[in-house]
Hints:
mainly alpha
Amino acid sequence: MKPWLFLSVAIVAEVIATSGLKASEGFTRLWPSVLVVVGYSIAFYCLSIALRAIPVGIAYAIWAGLGVVLIAAVGWLLFGQQLDAAALIGMALIVAGVVVMNVFSKSVAH
């Protein structure tokens, strides 16, 4: 269970860092830029810990898939970015893929 906690923290930290990247305006604003560096540092550290027990392909698929969905939600909520029906369907398919991998794949470490 612990590797999955580290992967979850890595995903959340990556989403926070990416949000800071948008807010940093090309690293011209100090505090959002600091958030980027700290967030990505935490994300990659936690991902490296998770990879001790979770296969890299599985971990990265989950990291990327959930990261896409979460950062799209942040973009919509915080930055006013629009999500049309195609974007929402695509994100639902990504989430479905992550669920299928976790529930049915024998590659996933439990």
